[in-house]
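Q: I'm writing up a methods section and want to include an example of the input and output format. Could you take the sequence below and give the corresponding predicted structure tokens, formatted cleanly so I can copy it straight into the document?
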Amino acid sequence: MYELFYFPGNANLAPHFLLEEIGAKFRLTLVDRDRDAQNSAEYLKLNPNGRIPTLVDHGAHGSHGADDKSALVVFETAAILAYLADAHPEAKLAPAIGAVTSAERAHYYQWMFHLSNTVQAQAHFFFYPEKHVADASARDALFAKTQDDWLAMFGVVDRHLEGRAYMLGDAISAADFYLAMLVRWGRKMATPARTLPNIARHAEGIFARPAVLRA
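A: Here is the clean output for your methods example:
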């Protein structure tokens, strides 16, 4: 049994997509940001950064229940996605590890890290400019530059998707669900990510999937 700590609209959305796609048993536990619950002593024991999401695998290592200290805790969205994909190879959401598929696995790592370290990281400037610029008068300029840079980052992904159904080609992977979450985050940009033709096509397909609709 998985437990996904979440808050609506946060980075838990991609792991939620994956849990539904895999068909795993899970429960959602709200971390109420409106009450600063992400900085509570209880939550910080799970995620010392006080960020969302956190995944707890209560079935790992033979654990049995929420209070079992042997339960496995994973934070960071990309790490959670990679863990779930590898824990459920039957879902085929990540290339298998092995010599035959080493190139596919390398490209999977590449795009997962790109989405995490580049595209998702840029979102922080978009949503929280005040945390990056102390001078309020400079925030409008930062906000405009952030959107230009973010759209350019999505543009790299859009060009990669040219002629490809999914991030890794013909096979869907965790990276596709990750991208869908980030595209959704970019819907309030002056020029939304979905104005890019290949991202728009990709997003239409991912957001129509039953697992994504349930999430």
